[in-house]
Design brief:
- Helix 3 packs across helix 4.
- The radius of gyration is 22 Å and the shape is globular.
- The strands form two sheets. Strands 5, 6, 7, 8, 9, 10, 11, 12 and 13 form a nine-stranded mixed β-sheet that branches.
- The chain is of the alpha/beta class.
- It is 38% helix and 16% strand.
- It folds into three domains: 104 residues; 51 residues, 2-Layer Sandwich (Alpha-Beta Plaits), CATH 3.30.70; 202 residues, Vaccinia Virus protein VP39 (Rossmann fold, 3-Layer(aba) Sandwich), CATH 3.40.50.150.
């Protein structure tokens, strides 16, 4: 494909991504994967270039663009190599006409940028949410040690006790160390969130929103496979991915429990009042993960944010029925919005005065309310709010 054809293809893909964001349809990664699968004529260099163009255009826009061409014109304002490719050539985009209006730039749609600003995230810290994320690994201590593990590329130790960092795009999943379960892909911030649980061998720990099990596997390693580790979630598909991952990692103390929304205690009745610790990695807006998924800014609205904060409050209340006296509740969201973080946790403590916030001894992060906040700008991690109560 010519460079101009790559730009035109990216514009068409952006049209589909914008429509998907507006209609809550397929996300960008799926749209790209489907197109690449259906258009085999595009070689590996073409696919890489198209992917980079699409995501660069998404990052360049704040509010949802009118269309893919407007998004690409916005990128052309910041990348001088783009505008000359609007040359009207075969398979290329038509020339730029006088009066064409590029999409608006910015960190996010106006309402969401204001919510971030109200939460103390603005300026360079807000702009850092749109940088490209690094690729972090967690050494699985059930099978290996960071100090002695040998990998095919140069790595840098992160602030997490078992964290390593490699260049973005490194084909980690092709390494023997990955296939044999010696390493897992996990952001350093996510690894630190697991530290906040303070899980110990022999304890009963519940990962209330386990999803695909990334944090569950980290907890199993911390517990050295001793004790009981419950991985629960309402999403059958995501939870089903845990079993093969646990087998690869050598994690043997995990029990998976599928939950029904609003009836979670029925499935977890055997553990009511028995847990030493409950981790709530709550569903959230994902504002802290925009470096990996910048299109998420276009999918969030005030109604959806309200739905998510209600779920978070419900999960916090649910956890109080699961911990034993003196047990720990660790609350985590990959969001930088106070209504999902410090404000949500304050409201929980007000509803349940028998619980008090506990100090966190994490190597990264800054105090936010009664918890800690990690951010790409200050910590080089995904954005997280982390708090613990007992």
């Amino acid at each position: 494909m010519t460079p101009a054809a790559r730009v035109q293809t990216s514009i068409k893909l952006l049209d589909a991504i914008i429509a998907g964001a507006r209609g809550k349809g397929a996300p960008a990664d799926r749209i790209l994967a489907d197109w690449f699968r259906s258009n085999r004529f595009a070689g590996s260099k073409d696919r890489r270039a198209i992917r980079e163009l699409v995501y660069a255009a998404i990052r360049a826009c704040g509010p949802v663009p009118a269309n893919g061409r407007a998004a690409m014109l916005r990128l052309a304002e910041t990348d001088e190599s783009i505008a000359p490719l609007f040359d009207g050539s075969n398979y290329g985009p038509p020339p730029i006409t006088e009066g064409e209006v590029p999409a608006e730039g910015g960190v996010a749609p106006v309402w969401l940028a204001e919510r971030l600003r109200d939460s103390g995230v603005e300026g360079e810290e807000a702009l850092a949410l749109l940088d490209r994320a690094p690729l972090d690994l967690r050494v699985n201590t059930l099978k290996a040690e960071r100090a002695t593990l040998e990998l095919p590329v140069e790595t840098a130790a992160t602030a997490a006790p078992n964290g390593l960092r490699v260049l973005p795009g490194t084909p980690v999943d092709q390494w023997p160390a990955y296939r044999e379960g010696l390493i897992e892909v996990q952001d350093t911030g996510s690894q630190l969130a697991c530290l906040a649980v303070e899980a110990k061998p022999g304890e009963t720990v519940i990962d209330l929103c386990a999803g695909g099990g990334g944090k569950t596997l980290a907890l199993a390693a911390t517990m050295d496979n001793l004790g009981t580790l419950i991985a629960s979630d309402t999403d059958r598909g995501r939870l089903s991915r845990l079993a093969p991952r646990a087998e690869r990692a050598g994690a043997t103390n995990i029990e998976s429990i599928l939950l029904n929304p609003k009836a979670e205690l029925e499935a977890l009745a055997a553990y009511a009042g028995q847990a030493d610790a409950v981790l709530i990695d709550a569903p959230c807006s994902g504002t802290g993960t925009w470096r990996r998924n910048p299109e998420a800014r276009w999918r969030l609205d005030d109604k959806e944010l309200g739905r998510l904060t209600a779920i978070q409050a419900h999960l916090l209340d649910l956890a109080t029925n699961l911990v034993k006296p003196g047990g720990r509740i660790a609350y985590v969201t990959c969001s930088l919005l106070d209504e999902e973080g410090a404000g949500q946790f304050d409201a929980f403590l007000a509803r349940h005065p028998q619980f008090t916030a506990q100090p966190l001894a994490l190597p990264l992060g800054r105090e936010r309310g009664k918890g800690m906040r990690l951010s790409p700008y200050h910590d080089g991690t995904d954005g997280f709010f982390i708090a613990c109560a007992s």
